[in-house]
Amino acid sequence: LDLDTAKEELEEFIPHVREMSDSSIRKMAGRDLTRFKDFKKQGIAIKFGRFSQKENDQIRKNVKEFLSLTGIENAEKLLFTSRYPEEKETINRLKAEFLFCGKIAEGIPRPWRLIYYRARKIFDPNNYKGRYTKEEKEKLKKYYAIHGNDWKKISEMMSRSNLSVAMKYSEIKSINYGPWTKEETQKLMHAVEDVIRKRSKLEAEKSSSEKSRRNLSIDREKLYQKLPWTEIETKVGTRYWRQCKQKWNSILTSKMTKGQELYKGTKGLQAKINLIKRLYEMKVEDANEVNWEELSNAIGDVPRAYVQAKFYKLKVSCVPLWQRKTFPEIIDYLYDEKLPELEEKL
């Protein structure tokens, strides 16, 4: 396909495709477009966001089958071939011969690039090494001073994954962990406003509506969904991205609820009861299948992140050994054991 046709056809599945680089669009047209069309015929929508347990299991299955098909020794050699320079040529030949790109993405309605990154995260032995020691943090700062954002090089030097070292540096470079100052809060609000306005102006220009250009209105969902937190972190300067996200959600919750305490006293008990009942009625197999937006009115007019945080606190404090339970088992326990207790207390 020529580039314009590729953009046009991909836009049905990836609304923001025109914001991507030409090389990324070409790769996506080659790796994903046929897959996307096949999923559409089956009535399956293309997904983004966090991977479900079912998708993670499918990735593991795809990798296992590809290793069996090619005789490549293990997932690390398959997904981190550059770590094995003496075998690199042979492994790359086998990957090309047995259509690695298509095989690893089988049965998963997502862009190939996201599936590949997820597979690398699952199978990287350097990705699960526990907390960073004080010495490691000092090394990370020193390596960053020398190599900048070359996370691949730094990850090799520290025997940690690319993602791990990048995220940890983002966290430790900001020394402020205390209460937010008024100045920091203002910086955060201006940073969020900047990125939302930029995005909305682009959309307004695409729609070529003079009215929408003159009077820029923001859908409420855009205030808390898929914001570029690393960009916002840079603008704030003194906090890392997760702190920015948590603070912004607390600001939004306060504004949307006009400062009311929705999760205390009898209101809090009723909110927990409503949340458990609604989750039980949904009968979903994975937390990623929950429509948290729809659930928000079980507590009140709040952002989805607020509801997710309250559910997390509920399962951690009420469900014994919750880490070993499936999502349906957690919901069943809350419904059978915790709900009667909450209703009696109310």
TrEMBL record:
Cited PROSITE patterns: MYB_LIKE
GO MF annotation terms: chromatin binding
GO cellular component, one term: nucleolus
GO annotation, biological process: termination of RNA polymerase I transcription
All residue ranges annotated as the Myb-like domain in the record: 124-169, 172-252
InterPro entries: Homeodomain-like_sf, SANT/Myb, TTF1-like
Name the UniProt record assigns to this protein: TTF1 factor
UniProt organism field: Nothocercus julius
